[in-house]
Amino acid sequence: MTTTPYPAVAPEEAGGHLTIDLGALAANYADLARRVAPAQCAAVVKGDAYGLGLEPAAHAFWRAGARVFFVALLSEARRLRTALPEATIYVLNGLFAGTEPVYRDLELRPALGSMEEIERWAAYCGEIGEALPAAVHVDTGMNRLGLSPAEAVGLAESPDPLPFTMALLMSHLACADDPSHALTARQLEDFQAIAALFPGVPASLANSAATLGDKALHFDLVRPGIAVYGGLSRGGTAPLQPVVRLDLRIIQLRDVHEGEAVGYGAAQTVGRLSRIAIVSAGYADGIPRLAGSSDLRRGAQLIVAGRRCPLVGRISMDLMAIDVTEVPTGEVEAGDFATLLGEGIGVDELARHAETIGYEILTSLGRRYHRRYIG
């Protein structure tokens, strides 16, 4: 049985049912792995596998052939090592002081993103007399984590051999989701030059967008994230298979007369006699407040009895309202479910209404849902 850190919520007690298709997740990974061959395809499971559950997602990726995994934090790596004893695991957010023995004990690999971290890892490896593996992260234009190009050159030209094993040289693209952005070409050129200074060291640059783009960006290992989870990663490229479905419970139906407002702040007034369905979910469940509707802007839509129905008014903590006037009488009643994600509505459509991105939608999905894993 799959275990997750999320509390088990009985289906009859939950305001929403979140279905996660591990078969689609594995198929998306396998699709990308085929596209990038002979480069290796890693699995990125940081952020609790983009909110979907680290352990079930990791097992799905492993069954699909993934052997190299990336997380952000050492706490995530601990969980992943328990789930996958044989996986190669990199920790992206650097080497926190004092954690070096944990990496050795759990056979984890830090991504060293500064000279201070490199010096600390080198000192530890020297103390214990073991050339432990690590990635070296070089900044090529993101200006977030990583050695400067000058520091990378200095590392390559140092006459002293490294007391640790550089198992991977990596960088991160800033604008690969926009195929026309000039920064990607500049980052590629800089990374190629730096990689040439470390012959024999596997190199990794590509995120999801680059994995779906120019093969020159693939190098030896790609690190797709949002693409395998069914989100949009690159302009002009269709998403892969959707992975999540979210159905929300309708708890009441009510008539609202023309000219009356719905919800907090009286943000939206109905222009006709309207049939309104009240749904048992809100921003406490990870549904962005900005996805709501007002007299000035349209909000997100949900599927009710096969029809798209608009949100009405603001989303509150635990509730929101849908206009189901166009749904024929008898096809919707209290106890039915409205679909917020699924049946043609993806995370990116919801994200656009909320003026955010699909990543935030996925990673915010709440803990009060009944979670069901299929595939």
Characterize the structure shown:
The chain is α/β, with parallel strands linked by helices. The protein has two domains: about 20-220, TIM Barrel (Alpha-Beta Barrel); about 245-375, Beta Barrel (Lyase, Ornithine Decarboxylase, Chain A, domain 1), CATH 2.40.37. It is about 25% helix and about 20% strand. The chain is built from eleven helices and 19 strands. The protein has helices at about 20-35, 45-50, 55-65, 75-85, 100-105, 115-130, 150-155, 180-195, 210, 345-355, 360-365, and strands at about 15-20, 40, 45, 70, 90, 110, 135, 165-170, 205, 220, 245-255, 260, 270, 275-280, 300-305, 305-310, 320-325, 335-340, 370-375. Strands 1, 11, 14, 15, 16, 17, 18 and 19 form an eight-stranded mixed sheet that branches. Strands 3-4-5-6-7-8-9 form a seven-stranded parallel sheet. α6 (about 115-130) links the parallel β6 and β7 (about 135). α1 (about 20-35) crosses α3, α3 crosses α4 (about 75-85) and α10 crosses α11 (about 360-365). The longest helix has 15 residues, at about 20-35. It is elongated and about 80 Å long. The two termini are about 15 Å apart. About 45% of the residues are buried. The mean pLDDT is about 95.
